[in-house]
Structure formats: C-alpha cells, structure tokens
Amino acid sequence: MKRLASPAAFAMLLAACATAPKPGAARADVQRAAGRAEVPSPARPGERAPRFTVRGLDGREVGLAIGRVNLVFFWATWSEPDKKAIPRLQEIFERHGPAGLAMLGLSVDDEPGLVAEFVRTCGGRFPVAWDEERRIATLYDARCEPTYFVIDRRGVVRFEHCGYGDADAEQIDAEISALLREPP
After folding, report:
1. Cβ neighbours of residue 100 under 8 Å, at least 6 residues apart?
2. What is the residue range of 153's domain?
3. Is there a domain that residue 19 lies in?
4. How many of the other CB atoms lie within 10 Å of CB of 95?
5. Under a CB-based contact definition with an 8 Å cutoff, are residues 148 and 73 in contact?
6. Which of 30, 54, 107, 143 is the most buried (most CB within 10 A)?
7. What residues are paired with 102 via a beta bridge?
8. Which of 23, 46, 56 is nearest to 138 (CA)?
9. What CATH number does the domain containing 115 carry?
C-alpha cells in the first residue's frame, strides 16, 4: 500500500480544514465591508429564499413567483449534466405549471451569447435568464452547476440539490408534487 502523506502533513490538512471559512462567509465579509447593514443568509432548506429580479432572455423581468411553488436552478452551457437535465425539467414544468409551479433557469455562463441557443437545442421552453457576474448564484450560495432550489408558496426553501443524476429529476418532481398538494 502506498503512503500518500505523513501523519504530520495529514494533521496540518485537518487543522486547515477546521479553520476554513464557512460557505458564504467571504460574501458576508464583502457585503459588511461595503457598508450594507444586513447580510442575507444563504438559501438553505428551512430559510426564506432571497428575492431577486433579473431580465429574462425574452426581455421580461423575472424572479420568484410569490404564492406559487418555485423551482430555481443555476446551470451552465458547458455543464454536461445540464444537457440531460433541461429536457427533464421541461417535462416537470409542463406537468406542474398549470397546478402552480413557477420555474426559472439562471445561466451562470461568463457570456450570454450561447445561452438561448443551448436551451432551445435542449428543448427548454421555461423562463431563462443570464445571471451576470453570478450575482444571484452568490446570493443563493449555489455551490455547483447545476444547483436546484425547490421553494414553497410561502417563499421558504424546502429542498436543495447540488448536481444532477438520473434519479434527481424524479426526486425533484416528487418534491414539487408534495408542495403543490400543501394548502396555499
């Protein structure tokens, strides 16, 4: 068996991890330094989802749809899992949209040029916007591409998913179905 590191090096690595800042801490420090009095907490299950508005690719202002179940997800044209996810998300949107699902895909690409074509090629017809400079992804503390936030009618994040695999669409669909059955 090959040794990868000495016990002392391993101990130093553990100490560094223990003292590393928590996710979102750097963002909070920057916002405090900028003079903002209140720093929004990251979007985590059980927490209120941060509100935002952004111009969609169709030119309309989009954001959270208050009073509806929301699926907000962050994705990128270079993400292979997103090529599989977008058609499945379109199916979910078509099935649950009439019952009260609002969906918004936020591209975290560096440039918006390929976003509309990518979504169209993958079969997505749900609202999409470009998250310029990852402003909203930072607000939500999205930790990977894709990241999904399922938000209830009261605006509370109920579920978060980081990454996409074959079972994720079924799980997200079941979560949305359950939230749509809850009384408004």
Report:
1. 68, 69, 153, 180
2. 40-181
3. no
4. 13
5. yes
6. 107
7. 70
8. 23
9. 3.40.30.10
CA distance 78 to 87: 16
One-letter amino acid at 65 equals A
d(CA 168, CA 133): 27
Residue 100 covered by a domain: yes
pTM over cut 0.70:
yes
Evaluate whether 161 touches 71 at the Cβ level (below 8 Å). Answer: no
Look at residue 178 and give its three-state secondary structure. Answer: helix
Question: Does residue 27 sit within a domain?
Answer: no
Measured distance CA(92)–CA(96) in Å, rounded = 6
The Cα–Cα gap between 76 and 4 comes to: 35
Which residue from 151, 144, 177, 134 is spatially nearest to 72, judged by alpha carbons? 151
- Six-digit token pair at 20? 């590393």
Q: For residue 76, is it within any domain?
A: yes
Span 63-77, pLDDT tens digits: 999 999 999 999 999
Q: Which residue has the tokens 């208050």?
A: 66
| pLDDT tens per residue, range 130-165 | 999 999 999 999 989 999 999 999 999 999 999 998
The first and second tokens of residue 116, run together, are 């509309």
